[in-house]
Each structure stands twice: as C-alpha cells, then as structure tokens.
Give the backbone structure.
Amino acid sequence: MRRSSNAKVILLVEDNPADARLTKEAFQETGISHRLYVVEDGVEAMSFLQRKGGYADAVRPELILLDLNLPKKDGRQVLLEIKSDESLRRIPVVVLTTSVADHDILRAYESQANAYITKPVDMDRFLEIVNAIDKFWFKLATLPLN
C-alpha cells in the first residue's frame, strides 16, 4: 500500500550539526514535499529503523542519507546492518559523506550502498545534489513498497 501523503520520508544520519542544518535547508529551499528525520549516530539510526526505545512509532523511511564517520556506531557498520536485515534491506541508502577515499567508496558499494555522494561545501552545489536525489529516487525510480 502506498503512503497517502506525497511527503517523502527521509532519514538523515548525520552527527555534524552544520551538515544536518545544510541538508534541512537544502530540502526546504528546493520545495520538495518531505519529512526529514535526523539522528546523530549509528546506534540511534538503528533504533529508529528497528523502532526501538523512543522510536517505537517511527515512520519507515523511503530513503536513508547516511554519513560514514559517526559516533557510537560507524556508518559503515550501520550500512552492513541495514543491508543484512530482511525488513530494512530494500530501503535505498545513499552514502552522503566528506570522504573521497577510494577504499570508502569501494567498501560502501561492496556493502550494497545504493549510491555514494561526496558532500559539497557550498549551498548551490548542495541544492543540485538534493534536486538530483529527489528527481532520481522519488520521480524516476520505482521503489518497493515497505
């Protein structure tokens, strides 16, 4: 069953408050109808996704934007856990990180990341990325029902 709302549910896993704010502003500025949930570490991300603790009523995201360098539980580990969980593996995970290291890119794709994007430093470029994410994941791609 499709969601009745057109608002796209996105989980942002980001420990840097400035990057989280930039992402929020970019989604607001593009006018994409969305509900962006932000968690600050890998443990919190898995609690949100598994609806544990304070997240018992959490909405299943349609897309996860995942930073790699996170406290408590590294984004690389979070990605592995998501993709090995039968109930979560179909959620697209876009790695959104500052790392341009070849080994991080390779490891992300080997761990079944759906895309790898390096965070830009300026707002104009970030807006381009958010628009591209919206166009591809929410307008072109057909995603499975959760």
